[in-house]
Amino acid sequence: MTENSFRLRLSTRAIAETEEAIHLIEQKERLEAAIQAQDSALSIDLSKAFLESIFKTIISDRLETPDLRKEFFPLFRDVKDNLVFSSNDDIADKLSRLAGSIVSVTNELRNRYGAASHGNDGYHRSEFTMGDVEFIASSVDGLAAFLYQKHRETLEPENHHRIQYDDYSNFNDWIDGQHNAFSMQLSDQIVIEYTASRMLFNNDLEVYREMLLQYTSTESDEEDDDD
Hints:
Layout: H1 9-14, H2 22-36, H3 40-62, H4 72-82, H5 89-113, H6 130-153, H7 169-178, E1 182-185, E2 191-194, H8 196-203, H9 205-226
Antiparallel strand pairs: 1-2
Helix pairs in contact: 2-3, 3-4, 3-5, 3-6, 4-5, 5-6, 8-9
């Protein structure tokens, strides 16, 4: 993209540390590209699709058996049911209402004006200006970033069902400090080293998770003792 092209800056920052979420990153880049191409109808479609990908990512991380076949609004309700917007009830309520408004309006706009929602005659011209589209996309950007950041900030092993290896570096270091790494020499120049934590994660995720829960529980107990 050129220096002056439209970017979902808040979402870019929010998902920067989750490089393995390839589809989520691709959805964001597709929306940016549609806006850059000044395709207003496709931009509206992709705004909703990007939010839907955010919803599905969050509930897949947090629910043991998520139902990803649900429609747009039920997916958003699952997000709200499993994500605390604020420890202050009044703030949480108002943030929830604001988020719900963005979700509702984005869905309405997509259904009426999106490229894939219905066909138009061959001489149809979109009534959306690109300024309108950028306003919508900026709202979606803010909501997507808010939800994803809040999700990542509040993930704990107890509610994290789709664990990523890089999410728990302290625990990985602790395992590696207890067990030797395994090395495989393929040639004089090539030696592959497997750490104990990586081998456990790749080969028995359930045991990895159980040890992680025990580790975090012990850490919490020690912090309580220090207090």
